[in-house]
Design brief:
The chain is of the alpha/beta class. It is built from nine helices and ten strands. Strands 1-9-6-8-5-2-3-4 form an eight-stranded mixed β-sheet, with helices on both faces. Strands 7-10 form a two-stranded parallel sheet. The structure holds guanosine-5'-triphosphate and magnesium ion. The site of magnesium ion has 5 residues, from loops.
Length: about 280
């Protein structure tokens, strides 16, 4: 069962028209998702890319695919072009140099919004994210703005990670929950789906994080915008081929950023309470 949360922030748009609130027949709360774009960022994924493309096409044949390659030195860009030549649903966005996963996704989101897609899927090329989870995740989007494929809710799991790595991820997510007061269990997860409207609401222009923090940043922005974030359990599999691009520096930078966001959030809450108390205190009795 998906677990869900609503942002504590302001609701961006009213959920129901006033007529629905007085008991008239309910309409679906969200528009149907017709056009789906699967974004696949790649940096040196020559051997993995054809496999993930095949699995995505088999699992969600109605979706289009956009490969986001940052001029991989191992020739992934050429592999991507060959896939695009063989399959008309596949396209490639070539970017001149490696700028991080976040920048690649932002370019892919912009492309997808310009081309009229209703939902944009993030999936790694390295085999960690099983495309076979996509039907359940897309189904959850019927009543969500953002769907996260979650490792850390009941039914979710990680395959082939050493205990140290598991503890790191669970610890990072606990830290994020405490610092930001946001009840997402896997805010760092990179397997997710955004409704196009959710991305428009979040706004892509002022996303500063492009590395490890990118997923957390967008989750936090979604929650603060009052969007509905739903987590669906997934089985995450460690990559078998190629190399991880995560490093210690990126990880510690993420910890500091989350602390800064948390401090800003709490300061805002305190200021709001102080203003309220001042107003109450000044009211004639
Ligand atoms: N276009 C682009 N893709 C990237 C970049 N960095 C990573 N990727 C891709 O993003 C996906 C996730 O990268 P990984 O290296 O697996 O990083 P990770 O999944 O956070 O780390 P691990 O869990 O250790 O695998 C893979 O498909 C990478 O090829 C980048 O700078 N540009
Ligand atoms: Mg990976």
């Amino acid at each position: 069962m998906p677990t869900s949360l609503r942002g504590r922030g302001r609701q961006v748009a009213p959920r129901r028209a006033p007529s629905q609130q007085v008991g008239l027949p309910l309409e679906p709360l969200r528009a149907p998702v017709r056009r789906v774009l699967v974004l696949i960022p790649t940096y040196n994924e020559r051997d993995n890319l054809p496999i993930v493309v095949r699995r995505v096409r088999e699992t969600v044949p109605q979706a289009d695919l956009l490969i986001l390659d940052d001029n991989s030195p191992d020739g992934t860009g050429q592999v991507a072009d060959d896939l695009a030549t063989s399959h008309e649903q596949v396209q490639v966005l070539h970017r001149p140099s490696k700028e991080g996963l976040g920048k690649a996704y932002l370019a892919g989101f912009t492309w997808g919004l310009e081309h009229g897609y209703d939902a944009l899927v993030e999936i790694d090329a390295d085999g960690s994210h099983r495309p076979e989870h996509l039907p359940a995740m897309l189904a959850a989007l019927a009543d969500a703005d953002v769907v996260i494929g979650s490792r850390w809710i009941p039914g979710g799991e990680v395959v082939n990670w050493p205990l140290r790595r598991k503890l790191l991820s669970v610890g990072a997510n606990a830290y994020i929950r405490i610092m930001l007061g946001m009840h997402v269990h896997d805010a760092t997860a990179g397997f997710r789906i955004y409704r196009a409207d959710a991305l428009r609401t979040i706004g892509l222009d002022d996303v500063e994080s492009h590395g490890y923090c990118f997923q957390t940043d967008l989750t936090w922005k979604a929650v603060r915008a009052g969007l509905r974030v739903v987590e669906v359990p997934i089985s995450f599999v460690e990559r078998e081929v190629g190399h991880s691009k995560m490093d210690k520096e990126v990880f510690s930078e993420a910890l500091v950023k989350v602390a800064q966001w948390g401090a800003k959030h709490r300061a805002g809450q305190l200021a709001a309470v102080a203003t309220k108390l001042r107003r109450q205190g000044g009211r004639p009795g």
